[in-house]
Amino acid sequence: MSTIHYDGRIFKTINNTANGEVNQQTIFRYYQKDQVVWADYSGGGIIVGHLVAVVDDEGGLDMRYHHINESLERMTGICKSKPEVLPDGRLRMHEEWEWTCKDRSKGFSVIEEVID
Fold this sequence. Notes:
single chain, mainly beta, 8 strands, globular
């Protein structure tokens, strides 16, 4: 079982490939119960979004996500996210994702924990 716990953590996007929709104004709020993780996200062109995930033994996340963007498009995708613990204890997540809607293109993003 992973020692990383996501409940109560807040992340923002550090970088994303051009075909992605989240950006530095997108904020993710994570929650966790046992091995199940979920999050709400919005901002930076996203009106509302949600993700659900299962944590693996190394703390990685296998997730599904959906959101509505400012063009009122319903977007869906899958993502594998691997954690990196920064020297100050915050998490940086390295993500490989794929749209399951529209062009089914793939991309990479990095999100990093922010402290309130």
